[in-house]
């Protein structure tokens, strides 16, 4: 009996709703995303896989699966063009005017000297290249743009630059939001393969429309459109040409397009550089399978028969160990695992999600939040990334264990807007009014109440070196209340009386007090940047 007859209606519906995209075997040495914290609640293990259906996905793909990214087209892995090399398709779509200068030679030499790096980079990129080329061609864009992630991130989907640009296409936070890439505590769409590719091509298309030149559009993608516009205006005032090669650019941007040219040259003639490109099949490598209920990341990986690390390579946008159906419509899975996932999901009888979102009703400490949600404080801090000495502000969203009786998934509104606001866990300050003693100075009172002398002077509108009259009312704002014993000891230490013989009289001299500790410090709290140096020559 074929899989089509043995699949339950739910599993079949999931597969029929799947949309296709790219691949090639993930390299063992490819960097992996940071591991998500292990779930605290217990989760019912996925049922032991039943006897697997023989070659289910490939048999169904040619007949049934429809690529939602290319409506009306069937996926047929046995079609002649599916077995051709994708690199040939990439070469046929090259359109950009070639550069040939010392910057290109420098980049070519850099890549040529690192064959292992090029192999890792191209093998890693082969997972996503079919989908990107498909999207580029649908928009009528040059296929050189499909090679841009080689320059931006070396196809590391979780890459983060020193300037906080993130993902395969290296979006800055603000630019990502401009192109509808959601960024909250549950997910960061700048790392999402489908969403970030859509946003990057939208952005590049906008820049090309603005400048009318792909080289200038690429420079603006790297340096910012405003900067490129200023560089063009400067050349116009000076009567100089305004093409990419003629503009005054920072070295990073001057080198940016030549690096892309070098990668293009390597794709055209890898043998000239003593390099080998891994074969990339001209057919989808992954499918996107719809998610209709919240599900733990670990369970989703288990149902797909993948390691957690491999699952995260295809779904790097997840920030937490749970996938929220309201915000994440699908997961990406290697083509051959999509059918297994749908079938195992239909068989699964235990809970799908052991985590949920909880909105904090009032500002509270992590220990209080942990008690309310039945978690260990250390686990709550780890899963929600709460640093020491911080409190959780009212309205924040925390990830907490899901009660066994809870049936409702996290709402779409909360899944899209969830945020975590923290405040420094400082004791509340109180106003203290005291009477100055004999010989009390601003410095002495500051030392006694563990505040800064400048603050005491400001509160009482006196100079920082002022001396108070005995009995004078002095105001202090502090969380520290010294005992009678400690107050006397502090005062004795803060004001040192030295006997100085002068004109037959003894004079009291205030010694410089030790630097006081501030008990209530305030803690605070488009551009583009390329990823770390390892991602580019």
From TrEMBL:
SUPFAM superfamilies: LysM domain (SSF54106), Lysozyme-like (SSF53955)
InterPro entries in UniProt: LysM, LysM_dom_sf, Lysozyme-like_dom_sf, Transglycosylase_SLT_dom_1
Database matches in Pfam families: LysM, SLT
Signal sequence extent: 1-24
Region (Disordered): 24-52, 491-537
The LysM domain, residue ranges: 432-476
Keyword Signal: yes
Gene3D superfamilies assigned to the protein according to its UniProt record, in alphabetical order: 1.10.530.10, LysM domain
Extent of Low complexity compositional bias: 41-52, 491-501
Keyword terms: Signal
Pro residues bias: start-end ranges: 24-40
Family: Belongs to the transglycosylase Slt family.
Name the record gives this protein: Transglycosylase SLT domain-containing protein
């Amino acid at each position: 009996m074929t899989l089509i007859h043995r699949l339950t209606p739910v599993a079949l519906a999931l597969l029929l709703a799947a949309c296709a995209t790219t691949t090639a075997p993930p390299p063992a040495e490819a960097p992996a995303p940071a591991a998500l914290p292990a779930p605290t609640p217990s989760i019912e293990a996925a049922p032991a896989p039943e006897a697997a259906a023989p070659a289910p996905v490939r048999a169904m793909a040619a007949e049934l699966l429809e690529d939602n990214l290319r409506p009306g087209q069937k996926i047929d892995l046995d079609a002649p063009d599916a077995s051709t090399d994708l690199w040939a398709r990439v070469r046929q779509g090259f359109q950009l005017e070639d550069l040939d200068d010392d910057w290109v030679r420098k980049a070519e030499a850099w890549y040529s000297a690192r064959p292992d790096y090029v192999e890792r980079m191209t093998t890693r990129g082969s997972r996503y290249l079919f989908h990107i080329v498909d999207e580029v061609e649908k928009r009528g864009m040059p296929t050189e743009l499909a090679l841009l992630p080689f320059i931006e991130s070396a196809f590391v989907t979780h890459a983060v630059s020193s300037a906080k640009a993130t993902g395969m296409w290296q979006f800055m936070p603000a630019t990502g939001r401009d192109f509808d890439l959601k960024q909250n505590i549950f997910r960061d769409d700048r790392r999402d393969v489908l969403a970030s590719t859509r946003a990057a091509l939208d952005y590049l298309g906008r820049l090309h429309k603005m400048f009318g030149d792909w080289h200038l559009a690429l420079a603006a993608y790297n340096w910012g459109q405003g900067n490129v516009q200023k560089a063009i205006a400067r050349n116009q005032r000076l009567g100089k040409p305004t093409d990419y090669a003629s503009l005054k650019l920072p070295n990073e941007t001057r080198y940016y397009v030549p690096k892309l040219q070098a990668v293009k040259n390597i794709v055209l003639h890898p043998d000239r550089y003593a390099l080998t490109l891994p074969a990339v099949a001209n057919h989808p490598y992954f499918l996107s399978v719809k998610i209709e209920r919240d599900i733990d990341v670990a369970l989703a990986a288990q149902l797909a028969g993948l390691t957690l690390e491999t699952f995260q390579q295809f779904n790097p946008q997840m920030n937490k160990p749970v996938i929220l159906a309201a915000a994440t419509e699908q997961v990406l899975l290697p083509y051959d695992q999509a059918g297994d996932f749908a079938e195992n999901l239909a068989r699964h009888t235990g809970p799908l999600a052991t985590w949920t979102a909880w909105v904090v009703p009032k500002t509270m400490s992590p220990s209080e939040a942990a008690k309310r949600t039945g978690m260990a404080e250390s686990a709550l801090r780890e899963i929600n990334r709460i640093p020491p000495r911080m409190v959780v502000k009212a309205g924040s969203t925390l990830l907490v264990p899901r009660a066994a009786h809870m049936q409702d998934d996290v709402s779409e509104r909360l899944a899209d807007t969830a945020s975590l606001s923290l405040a420094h866990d400082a004791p509340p300050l109180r106003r203290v009014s005291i009477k100055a003693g004999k010989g009390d100075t601003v410095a002495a009172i500051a030392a006694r109440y563990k505040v800064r002398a400048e603050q005491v002077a400001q509160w009482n509108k006196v100079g920082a070196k002022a001396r108070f009259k005995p009995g004078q009312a002095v105001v202090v704002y502090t969380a520290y209340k010294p005992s009678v014993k400690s107050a006397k000891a502090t005062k004795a230490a803060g004001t040192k009386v030295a006997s100085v013989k002068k004109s037959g009289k003894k004079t009291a001299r205030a010694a410089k007090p030790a630097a006081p500790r501030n008990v209530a410090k305030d803690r605070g709290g488009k551009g583009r940047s390329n990823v770390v140096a390892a991602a580019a020559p």
